[in-house]
Design goal:
Strand content: 15-25%
Number of strands: 4
Order of helices and strands: HHHEEHEE
Largest sheet: 4 strands, antiparallel
Radius of gyration: 44 Å
């Protein structure tokens, strides 16, 4: 005999006396009392089914619905991040194209020197110090600090205008001006220019 049949016959032997007692007990009751007992048993069975099956199933459906809503929100957030990434990628590509173009290919040092020498004169340029610093994984900022001495204020303004109005323009990051003690018509200036380049 198989274990399943063995278990079924054992269960049947255990349940049979109980069923017999219940039948005898119901037989001794009046019809009205029997109806009340059967009604109470039906209500108890319905309550057990509700607590064991229907309510857990409802909770599971509510959790599933919340998970679906959360998944939709996550998908919308990912879509926004993808759009932002594409925008930034486009800006990086544009900077790379600009940096490899005819004028963008020359170093910032060389471009600044080409602008400053005709305006201020080579003898007035005391120092030009180039440097770079990384900005993230794909970009770097190229800087040049230029110190000029003994120029007129008109020449300094002309130089700044020429720097910022070339094509493509160069950004002036900082300007420090100090009037000379011996000749009040002339100034010493430090000009820092910068641009972004791909690494």
């Amino acid at each position: 005999m198989s274990p399943v049949r063995d278990g079924a016959s054992t269960l049947g032997r255990l349940v049979a006396p109980l069923r017999l007692r219940i039948t005898e007990a119901l037989g001794r009751l009046a019809p009205r009392e029997r109806a009340l007992v059967l009604g109470a048993a039906g209500v108890t069975l319905a309550l057990l089914l509700w607590l064991a099956v229907v309510e857990p199933l409802g909770d599971s459906l509510s959790r599933l619905e919340r998970d679906v809503v959360r998944g939709r929100d996550d998908a919308a957030g990912i879509g926004e991040l993808v759009a932002r990434y594409r925008t930034l990628r486009g800006e990086i590509d544009r900077l790379e194209r600009s940096a490899t173009g005819e004028q963008g290919g020359a170093s910032l040092f060389a471009q600044l020197e080409a602008i400053a020498v005709p305006v201020a004169g080579r003898e007035r340029i005391v120092a030009m110090n180039p440097s770079t610093r990384p900005l993230g994984n794909e970009l770097q900022q190229e800087l040049v600090e230029m110190r000029i001495e003994g120029v007129t204020m008109r020449a300094l303004v002309t130089l700044l205008h020429a720097i910022e109005n070339r094509e493509p323009p160069i950004a002036v990051e900082r300007v420090a001006v100090k009037r000379q003690y011996k000749d009040q018509t002339r100034v010493d200036a430090t000009v820092v220019v910068a641009r972004l380049r791909p690494q």
